[in-house]
Write a structure and sequence with these properties.
Blueprint: H1 3-13, H2 18-25, H3 29-37, H4 44-54, H5 58-62, H6 72-82, H7 86-126
Helix pairs in contact: 2-3
């Protein structure tokens, strides 16, 4: 679902008219119609105000429900970690940071290797 459909669905689920939402956000109703019609995109400030008026996170306006965030298995693990002591949570965060950095470095190395491969073969052909 795209932003215009999410905005419309959230507004209707809250029982708000376009005019009521516009008033709550401090916009003219025409601008809400443009957002819902897909002819205009809100600024970050307007997304923030829409989220507050609709009682949702900005992520709920911008992303589909399963488009962002952990899958169910990771969500369960994160919930379990949240019940650990602060020391244990800090250890888990550091471990995750290390794994993320390791993955990013491996990806960067792979990209460099791919981008250098044609350059090396071009140099050999020029000799």
């Amino acid at each position: 679902m795209e932003f215009p459909e999410r905005l419309t669905a959230l507004r209707k689920a809250r029982g708000l008219t376009q005019l009521a939402l516009a008033d709550a956000v401090g916009l003219v109703v025409l601008q809400i119609r443009r957002y819902e019609g897909g002819t205009s995109q809100p600024t970050l400030d307007v997304i923030r105000r829409l989220a507050i008026a609709l009682g949702v996170s900005a992520d709920a306006l911008v992303f589909d429900q399963d488009e962002r965030g952990p899958d169910e298995a990771l969500r369960y693990q994160f919930e379990t970690v949240s019940r650990m002591s602060e020391h244990e949570r800090q250890f888990v965060r550091e471990l995750l940071d290390a794994l993320i950095v390791k993955n990013q470095v491996a990806g960067a190395i792979a990209r460099v290797a791919v981008s250098e491969k044609p350059a090396r073969s071009t140099r050999k052909q020029g000799r």
